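ESCALATION

Customer reports they have been waiting on this structure for their group meeting. Please prioritize. Original submission:
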Amino acid sequence: MGRDTGRNDRRARIAHIAARLMAEDGIEDYALAKRKAARQAGIPETRDLPTNDEIDVALRTYQEIYHRDEQRERLRELRAVAVRAMRQLAQFNPYLTGSVLNGNAGRYADVNLQLFTDNVKAVELYLIDRGIPYRAARARLYLGDEALTAPVYTMSDDGAEIEITVLGPRELRGPLKTSPDGKAIERARLQAVEKLLTQG
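Update from on-call: job pushed to the front of the queue and completed.
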């Protein structure tokens, strides 16, 4: 029992340090935040690290204590940016994901959109035709156990980065994950995001 208590204390300590790193330093990558937090806590990296859900809980607590008003205002701003982008990209069936959807977005958060279209190239052509500056990259996602590589376009709006991952209609029918054993990425359509914005 004592060993379990010690392990839980270590997990909680790492989760709270990781939450602070994400809130204050703008780290969005959970794995990176966990590794840095474990080092800062003087705990050698083990398999006994907190889950992303545990870090989300710690992050909500941290923001509520230290950045309550600022975080709420920033979240509202980012959701407004998301709504604008989703309306602009409506023909590509956009969904919001990530911290702007789940409410954990801090001062450095990006807006994360997933588009589902049978013409992936049309998204890039849309940006080019409208003279919208963007950076291109690729992301690895998982549909069940199947690994996918998807194009990602990053653009800016009102000082916020908008990261657009472009997928096919097939990927909308199954749960997408960032790792084979991770949980499904939550996503919301425009109408749901507009409702969140009016509530916030």
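Sent to customer with the following note: The longest strand covers residues 146-157.
Escalation resolved.
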